[in-house]
């Protein structure tokens, strides 16, 4: 029971958001079966915000096969300014669904400020829009939008090499972890850096980048095991929470 309580505390901790006056917004337009998604960030106070954004759109066809589009970048939002971030264009045909999520984070501390989402579904005749979720509402982990998404935020050649090794390993084993896995690279003293593996705001593992293929392969195996263990812990937690 101690273990379950500890996991529960960490899980709740992941849902804590920074207090800010930043809003995330996704707009969409439609021309026949062509969907254009546009993402925006808006400040409602007199503070300058240095943000990074992640814009994800994932389509599910009638056979439950997923395809995803990701855009990310950095932006400075001036006081009381709304700024366009990026655009994604996708075709949506009969019995297909599209979910898009926008995440805005503090670029320095990586704290989540705001998020928005939309859900579109083609019912065979027309495209139906489902109401946006509240900006800071928790996103259920079993939604297909969160399945198998791996974000590359590496910077150096060593970091890119690790990402490629891990991504290839994940594709080979055909895994789709039910959360967004972010692989980021952060500077350390001198010319070194380290890789950080996380699910949203929860850091799962980190290690120093060493430009050695055997070492990076070993780290990719370790990360794979950690993600599998983390998935098992989340399933156990969910069973505990749903128990009568």
Structure notes:
By secondary structure, the protein is α+β, with helices and mostly antiparallel strands. Residues 1-17 and 133-142 have low confidence and may be disordered. The chain has 2 domains: 24-144, Immunoglobulin-like (Sandwich); 148-244, Double Stranded RNA Binding Domain. The radius of gyration is 19 Å and the shape is globular. The strands form 3 sheets. Strands 4-3-6-7-8 form a 5-stranded antiparallel beta sheet, with no helix packed on it. It has a 4-stranded mixed beta sheet with strand order 9-10-11-12. It has a 3-stranded antiparallel beta sheet with strand order 1-2-5, with no helix packed on it. Helix 2 crosses helix 3. It contains 3 helices and 12 strands; from the N terminus they run αβββββββββαβββα. The two termini are 16 Å apart.
Question: What is the compact description of this entry?
Answer:
Helix content is 24%, strand content 43%.
What attributes characterize this protein structure?
Immunoglobulin-like, Double Stranded RNA Binding Domain, five-stranded antiparallel beta sheet, 244 residues, 2 domains, alpha+beta, 24% helix, four-stranded mixed beta sheet, globular, disordered N terminus
């Amino acid at each position: 029971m101690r273990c379950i309580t500890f996991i529960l505390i960490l899980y709740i901790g992941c849902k804590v958001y920074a207090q800010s006056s930043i809003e995330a917004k996704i707009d969409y337009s439609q021309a026949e079966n062509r969907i254009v998604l546009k993402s925006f960030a808006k400040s409602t106070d007199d503070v300058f915000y240095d943000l990074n954004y992640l814009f994800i759109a994932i389509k599910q066809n009638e056979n439950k096969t997923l395809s995803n589009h990701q855009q990310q970048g950095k932006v400075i939002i001036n006081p009381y300014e709304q700024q366009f971030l990026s655009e994604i264009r996708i075709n949506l045909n009969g019995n297909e669904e599209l979910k898009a999520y926008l995440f805005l984070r503090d670029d320095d501390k990586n704290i989540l400020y705001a998020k928005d989402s939309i859900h579109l579904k083609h019912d065979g005749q027309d495209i139906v829009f489902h109401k946006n979720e509240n900006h800071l509402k928790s996103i259920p982990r079993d939604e297909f939008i969160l399945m198998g998404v791996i974000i590359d935020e590496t910077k150096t050649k060593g970091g890119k090499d690790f990402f490629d090794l891990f991504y290839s390993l994940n594709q080979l084993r055909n895994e789709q972890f039910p959360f967004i896995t972010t692989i980021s690279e952060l500077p350390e003293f001198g010319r070194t850096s380290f890789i950080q593996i996380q699910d949203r705001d929860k850091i799962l593992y980190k290690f120093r980048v060493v430009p050695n293929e055997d070492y990076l392969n070993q780290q990719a195996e370790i990360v794979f095991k950690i993600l599998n263990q983390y998935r098992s812990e989340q399933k156990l937690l969910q069973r505990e929470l749903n128990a009568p």
